[in-house]
Structures are given as C-alpha cells and as structure tokens.
Write a structure and sequence with these properties.
Length: 449
Amino acid sequence: MATTPPEREFDSLRSLLAKANERKTGDELAGIAADSDAERVAAKRALSRVTLRELRENPVVPYEDDEVTRVIQDAVREPIYERIAEWSVGELREFLVDSSTTDREIRAIREGLTSEMIAAVTKLMSNMDLALVSSRMTITAHCNTTIGEPGTLSFRLQPNDPADDVENVLDSTREGLSYGAGDAVIGVNPVVDSAENTAAILEATHEFIEEWEVPTQNCCLSHVTTQMEAVRKGAPADMLFQSLAGTESGNEEFGIDVSLLGEADDLARRRCRSSGPNVWYFETGQGAELSGDAHEGVDQLTLESRCYGLAKRYDPFLLNTVVGFIGPEYLYDGRQVIRAGLEDVFMGKLHGIPMGIDACYTNHMEADQNDVETLSILLAAAGSNYFITVPMGDDVMLNYQSNSYHDAAALRELFGLDPIEPFGEWLREMGITENGRLTERAGDPTVFA
C-alpha cells in the first residue's frame, strides 16, 4: 500500500522545517511556526523520515534565485554526498548521537552535508543531544595563535566605548587581560563607522599588543568596506570582520554580497598582519533576516545554518552567534536563548567552523544574568571555542548584557580548561595566573602601568 511522502503532509519542505522547529517568537512573528505542540511533534516525526537527498534537491531558497544557496550547494563534495544521500534525517541523528561515533567519522561525512540537512537534524535533537555531539567535534583555526585545541577555552575581549575614546578602550583592554580574557581576539565595536576611526582603533590595539607582547589578534568591527579602506591605507588589522545573513536579500541589507566578500578575502590574505591562514571573523544571530524583512518565508534556525554554509567558504578564524542580542521579537526569553545557543554552536561545528557565542540578552527580554551563565556552562561543556566578554557583563556602548571578563576564569576553573597555550604562558609570565588559577594581581589593570 502506497504511503504519502512525509513532506506532503505539510505544504512544502520549507513549511515542514519551520513547523518542526522548537518554539521561537521569530517564527511566530513570521507566521510560519507550528500552531500547537501537537503539530510541532507531527512535523518532527515527518521530518525524521525525509531523506538527505530530498533536502539537497529542495533548498529553502531556490538555487537560481539566491547566491547563498549556490555557495552552499556548489561546495558539496559529490562522492561523500552520494554515500549518505539516502539516509533519513532520523538516521543522521542516530549516527551523530551514537556513543561509538567519533570526531573522525563526523569529519568523513561533513563535506557531503548542506546547511538544510544540518538544520533539519538539529530540530530532532534535545538540548543534551546538541551538547553531547558538539563536545565530540574539535575544530581549530590559526590567525596569530591557534584556537580550538582540546583542553582550551578562549574569550574575546570586547572593550567597547560609547565615545570611541581610544584611552578608554585601552583601559578596558588592560582590565580584560588582567582577568585572563582576550586570547581569542581583542575586538572593538566602533560607534563611528569611518576608515579613520577604524584605523585609530586598530593602531591603538596593535601597538598595545606589540608593546606588551600579547599573543593574540586584533580586529575592529566596522563594516567590511570601511575596514578594507583602512587596511589599504596601512591600518594594522590581523583579520577582517563582517555580519552575515542566510539569504542573498539579507546580505544586501548588510551591504554585502559574495563578490564583495571575495574581494575582501583576497585583500585580507595579502594585507592583514596575521601569521596564519584564517583571517576572518563573522557574526550571525537567529532572527537577523526577519528583522530586515529578508527571511523568504524560512524559519530562523534554518537561515542561521545557511549563514554557516556561507561563512565556511572563507575558512574563518572566528564565528559567533550573538544569540540574544537581536531581541525578544525573535527569542523571547531565557529558555529560547539557551536553546538557540546550543543549536547554533552545534550547527557551526557540524559545518566545520571554529564556533563561539555571545551568550547575551537585551534588557527588554524575559532573561537575566543567570540565563547567560547557564548557557555559558552548557556551552563550555559542549566545547564552544570561545565566548565574548565585556566589563562587568554590561556593554555600555551596545547596551546589552553578556559574560563578564571574570567569567573567563570561572568557566576555565569549572571545566579544567586553559587559554590558548602561548597566551596562557604570557599570563603566567605576567603574574596574572599561577597553576591555572588567577593570582592576587588578577583584575588589577595597573599590572600594565
């Protein structure tokens, strides 16, 4: 007796993917979410029977209409794909969660997966599933130092200032370093997006790194075209930065396309000061496409996965989701933020990206600092490459809450993890740490006086 293909129980694979997602206010705002828990469960069951081939042949935005789709589809290694094409999404999940599946075996299928396949399997996994499988995957990258080595946990030091006062930026940098943060990057979000301001920030952080021989890398998070202008004029950047979206129209809202990213990639590889090959820092976040009316009727988790498919093309050193930054219209409360953070790190790592997170929230969300700390603990256990840290957990320029500088030492102590080794050695030489713990000098920026 013939059976109805699972996707035909719903309007389309796009609709099925949306309704199988865990509850997200962004999907509800877009009018694509499941109407009830019963419909959500039915969608998950139907999705579990969909084959990877069906997902490959039915991208959520058509190949001919969207360059992000083309990047993702064209990157698939066909022999690997053909070995797994008849797997169902449920079978992919069973492979990933099986206790005998190793990182090496996951790597062996990675290049045969599309972002839609990765999004689909994510929807079938519990929070513990996501953390467990993430913890098995080791993803490293090298800029000036190597991030993601086993036994390490890194932190971006984010010394933002609401007036772009360089001395205030450096004071905050001193404080962050004195707590052991900053081995991932010293990255500044500028208020004024100009080549001159970008260059001033890059020069100040570069000179400080050189003076104190800090084994790390710097970055200024202005628009990529602004950074390109500054670098062409000689500004000392170790890598370039850009926010990404999961659709071509979403990236148009960000003022970028694949051609521009290719031009920037070529410039970065020729002109950035890093010693290694990984010269990009990308940021993403569930809901970004909907906020720009560029979601194409696709759920926010699937679009987030497509961001990673685009980022993968450029082999980045860092990528983090700013999981709670966009607001309660997309992730309403701490529960949704925690779920999204686990999803994002899992999806990024399954793409093969050195994945981190800004475990954060805005003040108009139903979330608090305990939610941020809970997510940080879960993702440290899950093997997140790095977290963002700001002074006292409060970014006074971007007006949101995140991890604090001193959370870096707490998370490392809790899980017995270390900084990137050259940075850890530098902390010991500076007297900031001893035997893996902070000393009395920790938290005192005058150590750099």
